[in-house]
């Protein structure tokens, strides 16, 4: 625990709120998306800008305090929260500024995907940004960032133009291809924590409505459905993105195939026809919709405040 004097000193240097275990907002502030995570930090600093982040990093260095960084809090492993340390909480930093002429957006680290998409789609623009609207852009981008548009535009990190970063020694740096290039390389899916990013700048792309939806089958057909999806994907155009799995919702278990076509919607039905021709689905639901609306579609099977256990891996091919 921090001493009263330490807490008072840190609080005096912050514009944002410092939350301690005895404070009423503490239990809510230490909760994240995954209900399996139940950690108790010594303090939570809700930062309002880069200056607060600098103060937190310098304080932690001076006093030897463990630090974790929270953006959207969606990371299922719970790394956003630490036991007995200082949480640098960026979740209230939510500004998004779009320059439609340059097709560029600058966003704060507390922004969620749905919030980002709402601002960019107002100008008919988007970039690769995950598949759940409640995911934070910060952890997603720094981890690589897969999404419905990655076939056309690459990962989220491929669309990162620059980032403002507070490094472990308390310096404020801008990282881009032309400035602090090594740090910029490391931030884009480098796999470690190379600093606290306080602002992201993204390249945007034109994106109108998408043709998207899902097919649901009995769970015992999982292997054959996945094989069909794999075979379809081999020749599918870059505008097609797919997800598949077995889902239990409200006591009903089903095998699902989810597809999003982000190209010309006039061609969509023909493109997805081979995928939709497989078997006899229990449910088949496809339609033309705004991109940001479909971004919310998978939210119903990855709900907050539930216990989530995820593992991931990378495969050169999807073998039987």
Fold topology:
Layout: H1 4-12, E1 17-19, H2 26-29, E2 43-46, H3 50-63, E3 67-70, E4 86-89, E5 96-99, E6 104-107, H4 113-121, E7 125-126, H5 137-142, H6 150-153, E8 160-166, E9 172-176, H7 181-187, E10 196-203, E11 205-206, E12 210-217, H8 222-235, E13 240-249, E14 252-261, H9 265-276, E15 283-289, H10 291-295
Structure report:
The chain has three domains: 4-89, 2-Layer Sandwich (Uridine Diphospho-n-acetylenolpyruvylglucosamine Reductase, domain 2), CATH 3.30.43.10; 96-206, Uridine Diphospho-n-acetylenolpyruvylglucosamine Reductase, domain 3 (2-Layer Sandwich), CATH 3.30.465.10; 210-301, Vanillyl-alcohol Oxidase, Chain A, domain 3, CATH 3.40.462. It has helices at residues 4-12, 26-29, 50-63, 113-121, 137-142, 150-153, 181-187, 222-235, 265-276, 291-295; strands spanning 17-19, 43-46, 67-70, 86-89, 96-99, 104-107, 125-126, 160-166, 172-176, 196-203, 205-206, 210-217, 240-249, 252-261, 283-289. With 320 residues, it is an alpha+beta fold. The radius of gyration is 21 Å and the shape is globular. The protein is built from ten helices and 15 strands. Strand 8 and strand 9 (172-176) form a beta hairpin. The N and C termini lie far apart (52 Å).
């Amino acid at each position: 625990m921090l001493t009263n004097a330490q807490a008072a000193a840190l609080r005096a240097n912050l514009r944002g709120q410092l939350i301690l275990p005895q404070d009423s907002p503490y239990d809510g502030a230490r909760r994240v998306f995954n209900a399996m995570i139940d950690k108790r930090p010594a303090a939570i600093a809700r930062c309002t800008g880069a200056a607060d982040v600098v103060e937190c990093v310098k304080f932690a260095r001076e006093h030897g305090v463990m630090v974790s960084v929270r953006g959207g809090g969606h990371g299922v492993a719970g790394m956003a929260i630490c036991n007995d340390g200082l949480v640098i909480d960026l979740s209230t930093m939510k500004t998004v500024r779009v320059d439609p002429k340059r097709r560029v957006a600058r966003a704060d680290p507390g922004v969620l995907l749905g919030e980002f998409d709402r601002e960019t789609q107002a100008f008919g623009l988007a970039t690769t940004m995950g598949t759940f609207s409640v995911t934070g852009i910060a952890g997603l981008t720094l981890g690589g960032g897969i999404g419905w548009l990655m076939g056309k535009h690459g990962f989220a990190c491929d669309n990162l133009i620059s980032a403002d970063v507070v490094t472990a020694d308390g310096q404020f740096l801008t990282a881009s291809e032309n400035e602090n290039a090594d740090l910029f390389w490391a931030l884009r899916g480098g796999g470690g924590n190379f600093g606290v990013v306080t602002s992201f700048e993204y390249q945007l792309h034109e994106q109108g409505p998408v043709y998207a939806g899902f097919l649901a089958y009995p769970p015992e057909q999982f292997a054959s459905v996945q094989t069909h999806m794999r075979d379809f994907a081999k020749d599918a155009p870059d505008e097609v993105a797919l997800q598949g799995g077995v889902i239990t919702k409200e006591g009903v278990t089903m095998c699902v195939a989810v597809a999003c076509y982000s190209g010309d919607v006039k061609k969509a039905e023909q493109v997805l026809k081979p995928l939709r021709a497989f078997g006899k689905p229990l449910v088949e639901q496809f339609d033309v919709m705004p991109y940001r609306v479909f971004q919310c579609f998978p939210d119903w099977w990855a709900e907050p405040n539930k216990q989530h256990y995820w593992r991931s891996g990378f495969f050169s091919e999807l073998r039987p």
